Amino acid sequence: MSLINQAYRLYNRRLLTELDFSSQDPARFQDATFQYLIRHGANALFGKTYKLGEIQDVKAFQERIPLHDYDMLEPYIQQSLKGIENVLWDMPVYWFALSSGTSSSRSKFIPMNRDNLNLCHYKGMLIMLSHYVRTFPKSRLFTGKSLTLGGNRHIDKNVDSNCCYGDLSAFLIINTPLLARLVTTPGKKIGLIPDFEAKIEQVSRLIARQKLTSFSGVPSWNLILMRKVLAETGKKNLHELWPHMELFMHGGVCFEPYRVHYRELFPSPDMHYMETYNASEGFFAFQTDLNDPGLQLLPNVSVFYEFIPLDKLAAAQNGSFTRFLTLSEVRTDQPYAMVISTNSGLWRYLIGDTVRFTQLYPHKIIISGRTKLFINAFGEELMIENAERALARACTMTGASVHEYTVAPVYMDGQNKGAHQWLIEFEKMPPDPEAFCGMLDKALMEVNSDYQAKRLDTGTMDPPLITSLKQGSFYRWLAFNNKLGGQTKVPRLWNTREYAEALLEVNEKL
After folding, report:
1. Are the C-beta atoms of 347 and 341 separated by less than 8 Å?
2. CA-atom Rg of the chain in angstroms
3. Among residues 106, 283, 329, 375, which one has the fewest Cβ atoms lying within 10 Å of its Cβ?
4. Judging by beta carbons within 10 Å of its beta carbon (0-12, 13-18, 19+), is residue 227 exposed, middle or buried?
5. Which CATH class is domain 1-371?
6. Is the per-residue pLDDT at 48 higher than 80?
7. What pLDDT is stored for residue 90 in this prediction?
8. Does residue 68 contact residue 347 with C-beta atoms inside 8 Å?
9. Taking the domains of the chain in order of start, what are their residue ranges?
10. Dmax over Cα atoms in the chain, in whole Å?
11. Minimal CA–CA distance to 256: which of 367, 356, 355?
């Protein structure tokens, strides 16, 4: 183990001890987190409204505090945006991470404060890096720089207050501790450029001259950057440029469609890929075993977790079901909607992700979809996890590879059955598109019994319709909608044709 790795592990040994203990006894840490949240929340306007100070246990908490989505919390958040203090948490809120989502609002303003930044976002990152260095004691991670490709929203200031809003990555960049700045790139000047394409241009020139050992962010945006660096340097692959590159910390979208492309860019067997669950709302989980797709949930980052069985979600949203499960009560291989309470003032907040536990003690999850990201036009209940698995299987069987895709329903009319239209921008076209369609259809039936029933038993659905889009269609659509960079993701599944029609229109113009 190098001296710098040893020093880093010693510095963060408390975090590693916490990780080990929390793996075996998460309830102890969740109980402490619950009491901490209640104690501080009781002093805020929200806490006084719901009399948090009188709550002694989780049962009373669940009976008194209703499930909240963003629309329900927005009136409180709007007060904070105007500069009113102690609305959702007993600490000044100066930052709001912008997050696009499926609420009725165009953008969600997720409140952040100093405690939330340090005890959730940064703490989660430190735990992850400490664990990585312990797992790979010969790592050279700290002998070079770590690249973070941030989003395209610069920091704006509310005219009515001193509050700032922008991408989560922007606030992480401006608050990066001084020592950490020595091993991160780019700096504030380039990292906060609002125009994503201009930022890509400058970042590519900068990092081509630097020694990189790791990078992080959304796979799709980093792929654009890495290919630009490869083209500009004329290297055969990027390990020729960065021989000590060893780690890509990724999240936001399923990595499997991109893995083959990154292996071409970084062919070394020593290159590692680690998935993280790092959202605007908090740092929740990361991949502790790189051979296991499950992400270990962190019970000690000031987040109290609850889980709604997916078949109870509608009842939870109308208030007739309130007894959500805690970490001590969940079971493996059951779909849950995740609910969080955090030290940013999100109370019993339906984050919008659905998860499935693959293991307990330590508790590991797979993000299986979104509570609103699905297609159920014909009773098929197609979730994102089904779509990702089926598409990966069809690509493997045919040798195809996919850059981006989205799926939309094609509704029944007097002549035709219903179907799903897959709009795919192929990186490598399948040699036989018809065979690809058949394999995709077969795989979907294997992973989703409801889909199989609608395809075969009731006969209400036809096979998928594959529409191959021109190169750059998704990028142009995102650019047109000011969604380049950061945590912005292409909506994979949507229950209407809103995105499909817009993409087809862009495709026609290319």
Report:
1. yes
2. 23
3. 106
4. middle
5. alpha beta
6. yes
7. 94
8. yes
9. 1-371, 374-509
10. 72
11. 367
